[in-house]
Structure formats: C-alpha cells, structure tokens
Task: structure prediction
Amino acid sequence: MDLLVDVVGILTQAFVMLIIIQFVIGLLFAFNVVNPSNQFLMQVYQSINSLLEPILRPIRNIMPNTGAIDFSPLVLIIGLQILMAVLRSV
Result:
C-alpha cells in the first residue's frame, strides 16, 4: 500500500508541476513577455496542454463560466491534494 501511495504521490507532483508550467507559459504569452511565435515555448505549451486538456475539460464543464480566468487548474490541484490526503490516511 505504501508503494501505491508513493507512486500516486509522484504522479500528483508531476501533474502539479505541469499545471504550473502551463500557467506560467500562458501568462508569458498573455502579457507579451514572450512572443507566441517562439516555436520552442509554443511546442512545450501545446504538448502540456494536450496532456492536461482531457483532465481539465470535465472540470471546466462542471464549473460556472468565470470569463477570462480559468479556475480549472486550481480545482485539479486541490483535488489531487485531497486524493493524496485520503490515500495517506488509509
């Protein structure tokens, strides 16, 4: 059981890091700190987005529309943290 909790913990940390990287790159593009024509960052952003979109889409469908701010990554991070807390307590 400890091995399962450790593996899920590592996967949770990886997902959280990907979400943060996606968020930071999106901010850099949004505020024109980095030009979206930067091929390297655009490919990294699109790759991370293709990994996270199947997970974030159902969360977005459930949440109310908040306009320009997307809270689905925050909800996913909180959900992953709750999952880890439950697994650690079992």
The chain has three helices and no strands. The mean pLDDT is 92.
